[in-house]
Design brief:
By secondary structure, the protein is an all-alpha fold. The chain has helices at residues 19-38, 43-50, 65-106, 114-123, 128-134, 144-164, 174-194, 205-212. The longest helix is centred in the middle third of the chain and has 42 residues, at 65-106.
Length: 213
């Protein structure tokens, strides 16, 4: 049997361009068209330039003004989407940081210094739970000023989260309002109980390190 089989016969017209090459070519056209629009070039001028060889700044092929306008618009939308995704990622990282900070600060609201009390319990051969039941008078109490400072900083964390999420607008959620108001209320109640004015004095690094031990 002579001649090519149907499987080995090349497709008519010299074959089709693979999808990835088509996508790559369109992407290059989109960027080229967008950059020309940034240079304030009209679509008519862009079409004239597109016919020029690549080495002369063109695309080396005919492109209609409608297609060029569509290509430029598509590239611009991709930039907006990429910028939006970057903002969302940054916002997510900032929210995670605020959550970690909030959890750490809440630990300083406990009147009992759990970390320090646990060290005493270990020295007495007890667990913290046993020590709390058997020798409550020996529990290490946290200084009032540390609790007040922690509450003041929690209010700052709540404000930072509200700004980051854009919740200063009239549409802010009731859940967030409740969280922020509860922090402010706790700060005011504690200050009133202690007869002191809360100040945003930061919790010292030493206290943070003790809490982690």
């Amino acid at each position: 049997m002579t001649g090519m089989s149907k499987k080995s016969k090349p497709p008519k017209g010299g074959g089709t361009m693979p999808q990835d090459l088509i996508a790559d070519a369109i992407a290059k056209e989109e960027r080229w068209a967008y950059e020309r629009r940034v240079d304030a070039m009209t679509t008519r001028a862009m079409a004239d330039l597109a016919r020029q060889p690549i080495e002369n700044g063109g695309l080396g092929r005919e492109m209609s003004t409608t297609t060029l306008a569509r290509r430029a618009s598509a590239y611009r939308k991709s930039l907006i989407l990429e910028e939006s995704e970057t903002r969302d990622q940054h916002r997510g990282l900032e929210l995670e940081r605020l959550d970690r900070q909030e959890r750490a600060l809440y630990s300083f609201l406990d009147p009992v210094d759990q970390a320090a009390s646990n060290l005493v319990a270990i020295q007495l051969g007890m667990t913290l739970e046993q020590f709390t039941r058997a020798r409550p008078a020996l529990l290490v109490m946290r200084a009032d000023k540390i609790r007040i400072a922690a509450l003041a900083q929690l209010r700052g964390v709540s404000e930072s989260r509200r700004k980051l999420l854009g919740l200063d607008a009239p549409t802010e959620s009731s859940l967030t309002v409740t969280t922020i108001d509860s922090t402010d209320a706790a700060l005011a109640d504690l200050a009133e109980q202690l007869g002191k004015t809360p100040t945003p004095e930061p919790v010292s690094k030493a206290h943070r390190q003790d809490e982690r031990q």
